[in-house]
Amino acid sequence: MAPWVDAIAPFLIAVSVVIGPGLLVVSAAGARGWIRWSLSAPVTFSIAGLGAVLLGLLRLPFDPISFAAGLVALAGMVWFVRRLITRRFASGAPTGEHARIRREHDLAPWAVPAAVVVGLSLAAALISSRLMRGIGSPTAIAQLFDNVFHLNAIGLIHTTGNGSSLSLGNLTEASRGFYPAAFHDVVALVMGLGVSDVSIALNAVSVVMAAVVWPVSLSFLATRIFGNRADIIVLSGICASLFAAFPYRLFSFGVLYPFMSGLTMLPVLVALVMEFFRAGRSSFRRQVPVTVAVGAAAPGIALTHPSVVVAALLLALVFAVPPLLRLLRERSSVLARSQAAIALAYIVGTVAVFLIVRPPLSTAPWDPIQDPRAAVGSIALMSPGTGLIGWVLIPLAASGLIRAIRHARRYAAVLAMTTTGSILYFASAAMWHPFLRDLLAGVWYRDTERVSALFAVACLPLVILGAATITRAMAAGLRRVIPSSSAWLRTIIAVVLVGGLIVVVGQRGALTQAESWLGQSFGQAGVEPLLSEDERALLEELPDIVPANEVVLGDASTGASLTPAFSGREALTPHIFGERSKDEKMLLSRWDRVGVDPSVCEVVRELDAYWALDFGTEGVLGQDRPEIYGLDSLADAPGVEEVARVGDAALYEAVACR
């Protein structure tokens, strides 16, 4: 296993790919401050996801060269359009926001920039260190069902140059169709920039999303709700690491890389909806740049995981209520009537999207995991799922809840988001009524693990509010202890004391369990149902044995079909599920008869499927191996010859068909 220090260069490449393209475009558009940095990752995903679709339609390869060319052209066009607009119209953007907030809170001029560095650095260190310990090595892979698809999808995009979400499907020609591919496109770009090992590229991008993009997004939402205050920024960074359900659990369940990455950007979309309706209080003109920002960010998030956009729309519903209430007070105002119409359209549209945009529940086998009382307890204890209790979250959430209720009008959004997350969690975890459960949790496959992560994201503003409330109380107490000190010094001391206590207490219990689950899922416990070291070693030998234009058969559930990811060779069944053609089904059931059945050789020659990997019968599905009958007894099959072996893993060739 390689040490993490060997992956410094891949991590720097991953940060550059995830942040850099979006940062260039939003900077060309004139964005500044928090919104520039928070939009960078979503816009990058929009450029990658939409760019791959466009290049696919034009039959051009999606690779770093075509991506860079399109990026430069897009940034130049955005800059040119911005120049035209600013010459014709005076800027309506607010100025002096940071200075105004500093005066209000008696902060030193350097407080907010310093808070950004401290808060985001703390978050990155806490989250990345736990993920790295759990993963174990930059070359480790999650030994889980969904990783067959993710690894091969990235490998195929890298080798074929086709990253279009319109055709990725289940990775075979017979199952071509829509699958949101933006996450896989981004990882493929990292591979194209010199990170040749798919596992290193995948780990680098996913850790960057969890440890860098997520804290930036959460801090952006927190500053929109609570103000651009130094204590809020630091506490947001610390609180981003506190829930076991997100981001850690999504690395050890599934594994759900696209959903996890989409959730890291969800706060940005919620914050933009908030800004849109807030800007509408004064004029339509101030809503235009926010609308553009939403249009730039939403496609990338949708092409990472569409259900995240649905979740963002739901969590932001509360921001559409004030325009409707304002209409009651200002019925004669044209602006009030127009904004109320927009708000009503938003509410109706959100309900329609929530009801329509959902996966087929035939692929959602998850049942409730708790009784109603236990689910309510999990919500109250801020411990969704079946994990241990995160004790530090209880006083933080309680303090936030008390303050939010006492100032309900000011913190209505915090209460509404927490309530929405709680309802969704209860529906997935404990609701047995099939219609209601499908209605409320069907968008997320009725899966409690997915909804637990969404619950964590929805409740974090309440947790941050609680941390800020305790910090403010601590600062007030310090005023009596050191009355001669300035307000900003007392705030710094309070943040250090409260933040330090949260870090020390919060990194135990549930998070320790989450790290243990990570270690098990990434094979640190010695269980490797998907891919053992011997099997991986054999896959890495394949490029020297198997010609580039020939196809390899293998049982996908044992990892024997991971040739696109680790060998650069086509697999007959690159995913465990998916439509198979008639010829593919025939080979899977009869490939071992090449020496006795001429019709099998005819199909082998037609598909160039001269090779087969035997990785045993134990895989991520146990010994449930549907339709894989022709690969059971290759060692004794006539016309089949063993070509290479590493341990129990073997490669065979259909020599009878040559």
UniProtKB/TrEMBL annotation:
<feature type="transmembrane region" description="Helical">
    <location>
        <begin position="7"/>
        <end position="27"/>
    </location>
</feature>
<feature type="transmembrane region" description="Helical">
    <location>
        <begin position="308"/>
        <end position="328"/>
    </location>
</feature>
<keyword id="KW-1133">Transmembrane helix</keyword>
<feature type="transmembrane region" description="Helical">
    <location>
        <begin position="411"/>
        <end position="433"/>
    </location>
</feature>
<feature type="transmembrane region" description="Helical">
    <location>
        <begin position="487"/>
        <end position="506"/>
    </location>
</feature>
<feature type="transmembrane region" description="Helical">
    <location>
        <begin position="64"/>
        <end position="81"/>
    </location>
</feature>
<feature type="transmembrane region" description="Helical">
    <location>
        <begin position="107"/>
        <end position="127"/>
    </location>
</feature>
<keyword id="KW-0812">Transmembrane</keyword>
<feature type="transmembrane region" description="Helical">
    <location>
        <begin position="232"/>
        <end position="250"/>
    </location>
</feature>
<feature type="transmembrane region" description="Helical">
    <location>
        <begin position="340"/>
        <end position="357"/>
    </location>
</feature>
<dbReference type="InterPro" id="IPR046671">
    <property type="entry name" value="DUF6541"/>
</dbReference>
<feature type="transmembrane region" description="Helical">
    <location>
        <begin position="39"/>
        <end position="58"/>
    </location>
</feature>
<feature type="transmembrane region" description="Helical">
    <location>
        <begin position="453"/>
        <end position="475"/>
    </location>
</feature>
<protein>
    <submittedName>
        <fullName>Uncharacterized protein</fullName>
    </submittedName>
</protein>
<feature type="transmembrane region" description="Helical">
    <location>
        <begin position="284"/>
        <end position="302"/>
    </location>
</feature>
<dbReference type="Pfam" id="PF20176">
    <property type="entry name" value="DUF6541"/>
</dbReference>
<feature type="transmembrane region" description="Helical">
    <location>
        <begin position="377"/>
        <end position="399"/>
    </location>
</feature>
<feature type="transmembrane region" description="Helical">
    <location>
        <begin position="200"/>
        <end position="220"/>
    </location>
</feature>
<feature type="transmembrane region" description="Helical">
    <location>
        <begin position="256"/>
        <end position="277"/>
    </location>
</feature>
<keyword id="KW-0472">Membrane</keyword>
